[in-house]
TrEMBL record:
<dbReference type="GO" id="GO:0004853">
    <property type="term" value="F:uroporphyrinogen decarboxylase activity"/>
</dbReference>
<feature type="binding site">
    <location>
        <position position="77"/>
    </location>
    <ligand>
        <name>substrate</name>
    </ligand>
</feature>
<keyword id="KW-0456">Lyase</keyword>
<feature type="domain" description="Uroporphyrinogen decarboxylase (URO-D)">
    <location>
        <begin position="142"/>
        <end position="158"/>
    </location>
</feature>
<comment type="subunit">
    <text>Homodimer.</text>
</comment>
<keyword id="KW-0963">Cytoplasm</keyword>
<comment type="pathway">
    <text>Porphyrin-containing compound metabolism; protoporphyrin-IX biosynthesis; coproporphyrinogen-III from 5-aminolevulinate: step 4/4.</text>
</comment>
<comment type="function">
    <text>Catalyzes the decarboxylation of four acetate groups of uroporphyrinogen-III to yield coproporphyrinogen-III.</text>
</comment>
<dbReference type="Pfam" id="PF01208">
    <property type="entry name" value="URO-D"/>
</dbReference>
<feature type="domain" description="Uroporphyrinogen decarboxylase (URO-D)">
    <location>
        <begin position="22"/>
        <end position="31"/>
    </location>
</feature>
<feature type="binding site">
    <location>
        <position position="154"/>
    </location>
    <ligand>
        <name>substrate</name>
    </ligand>
</feature>
<comment type="similarity">
    <text>Belongs to the uroporphyrinogen decarboxylase family.</text>
</comment>
<feature type="binding site">
    <location>
        <position position="320"/>
    </location>
    <ligand>
        <name>substrate</name>
    </ligand>
</feature>
<feature type="binding site">
    <location>
        <position position="209"/>
    </location>
    <ligand>
        <name>substrate</name>
    </ligand>
</feature>
<protein>
    <recommendedName>
        <fullName>Uroporphyrinogen decarboxylase</fullName>
        <ecNumber>4.1.1.37</ecNumber>
    </recommendedName>
</protein>
<feature type="site" description="Transition state stabilizer">
    <location>
        <position position="77"/>
    </location>
</feature>
<keyword id="KW-0627">Porphyrin biosynthesis</keyword>
């Protein structure tokens, strides 16, 4: 059994008593830190950085040392899964991820493989092993994957989009293809998360970043069943499901076989607790834009948030990833305010 000096986040995730609220931030390993930008510069590109285990490990640990968060999250991207299945991506400067080839037909889906993480994603597993050794039990490590629906969006659309209308068109007009693709992504994701756990991840989070573009009915058909399969398959460590914009699915989230439900800032805290129920831990949900305000405002909003969530069965976080142009001192203010909170 691993000897963790700080296991607050794991206890909170399992619904056990904690002496203070644990805190981490989505996208904490990234451009907000000058130290990250320096390593990224050295690596040459995002993909070079993500696929070099020593460098990925270095930027994973930076927020633990610099910001004092209660967990590290492995530096990678949700798009490494499509790549491992045979659909490579490029990261275009100032544009974001692009898939030069996209999925159009059943034949395209059939050409994809269910990846073997020990081969196609070995670089992530190697990075996890280095992080675990360098963290030496200071804080737990979070592993992650994209939800199958969010990955389908990129694999069909080929790039980011406000509407993902090409991907949604496939759901409405090519249901069979969509389900075949979602199942293949799900099978890869389960194997991948299990491999991350075997390599040392202490908790895993599923990011359904584009959940909010679906109707409640479509969400129940095309996203939830696949997230449910993943939750049912992962029994080794706590699982967090974060579905951005899926306010309509909060009651369904409460029925998943997961431990933590992530909330975005559009979701009312008391209402979410009612809808999700008392059995799960909640995570979130400060608007990342609060971190553009004054130190006093940040403290005020952070304390008010904790007061609404309560200090138990709760993990403090933002309602989505931190924006790259946020002042690290403001981030530190948010984290310190959580750590100093007295009920
Ligand atoms: C949708 C999504 C992606 N990637 C991810 C999601 C789900 C979470 C979310 O909704 O924000 C997840 C992700 N991406 C990255 C992490 C690292 C760990 C962490 O949270 O600190 C995580 C957890 C690194 C990254 N992934 C990316 C960067 C920036 C690239 C760089 O440093 O040059 C980082 C640090 C690139 C990326 N990757 C993706 C986009 C749309 C972009 C471009 C936008 C941007 O630049 O922020 C896809």
């Amino acid at each position: 059994m691993e000897n963790l000096q700080n296991d607050l986040i794991l206890r909170a995730a399992r619904g056990q008593q904690v002496e203070r609220v644990p805190v981490w931030m989505m996208r904490q390993a990234g451009r907000i830190l000058a130290e990250y930008r320096a390593v990224r510069e050295k690596a040459g590109s995002f993909i070079q950085l993500a696929t070099t285990p020593e460098l990925a490990a270095e930027v994973t640990i930076q927020p633990v040392d610099i910001l004092g968060v209660d967990a590290a999250i492995i530096f990678s991207d949700i798009l490494v899964v499509p790549e491992a299945m045979g659909l490579p991506y490029v990261m275009e400067e100032k544009v974001g991820p692009i898939f030069p080839t996209t999925i159009h037909s059943m034949a395209d889906v059939e050409k994809l493989r269910v990846a073997n993480p020990e081969e196609e994603l070995k670089y992530v597993l190697d990075a996890i092993k280095i992080v675990k050794s360098e963290l030496n039990g200071r804080v737990p490590l979070i592993g992650f994957a994209g939800a199958p629906f969010t990955l389908l969006c990129y694999m069909i659309e080929g790039k980011g989009s406000k509407t993902f209308s090409k991907a949604k068109k496939a759901l409405y007009s090519e249901s069979e293809l969509s389900h075949a693709l979602l199942q293949k992504i799900t099978d890869t994701t389960i194997a991948y998360l299990k491999a991350q756990i075997a390599a040392g991840a202490n908790l895993v989070q599923i990011f359904d970043s584009w959940a909010g573009i679906l109707s409640p009915e479509q969400y129940r058909i095309y996203s939830l069943p696949y997230i449910a399969q993943i939750c049912d398959a992962i029994t080794e460590v706590p699982v967090t499901v974060f579905a951005k914009g899926a306010f309509f699915a909060r009651e369904d989230m409460g029925k998943l076989n997961c431990d933590v439900v992530g909330l975005d800032w559009n979701m009312d805290i008391a209402e979410s607790r009612k809808l999700v129920g008392d059995s799960k831990t909640l995570q979130g949900n400060l608007d990342p834009c609060v971190l553009y305000s004054s130190f006093d405002e940040i403290k005020k909003h952070t304390r008010s948030m904790i007061q609404q969530f309560g200090t138990q069965k709760y993990i403090a976080n933002l309602g989505h990833g931190v924006y790259p142009d946020t002042n690290p001192d403001k981030v530190k203010c948010f984290i310190d305010t959580v750590k100093e909170y007295q009920a």
